[in-house]
Amino acid sequence: MQLLQRHPALDPEMKANFERVGRLLQVAVCDDPQLYVMAETGWDAQHDVEEREP
Asked: Where residue 35 falls among pLDDT bands split at 50, 70, 90?
């Protein structure tokens, strides 16, 4: 969901929907505080990393 909502071809409403559903899943699944923090950072593009060649 975090990657989908950043796709440049999606309209703003669809991006907002992906984030809304993704955050609901995050709350339901992340039962550990550290896991929640890690998932939360995924919503912030500043935490993205470049893909490395194998």
From this structure: very high
CA atoms within 13 A on the CB side of 18: 14
**pTM score, two decimals?**
0.75
Tokens of 37: 């923090």
In a domain, 11, yes or no: yes
Please give the residue range of the domain that contains residue 22: 4-45
49 in Cβ contact with 39 (< 8 Å): no
Residue 14, classed as helix, strand or coil, is helix
Domain assignment present for 32: yes
Q: Which residue in 42, 36, 5, 7 sits closest to 20, CA to CA?
A: 5
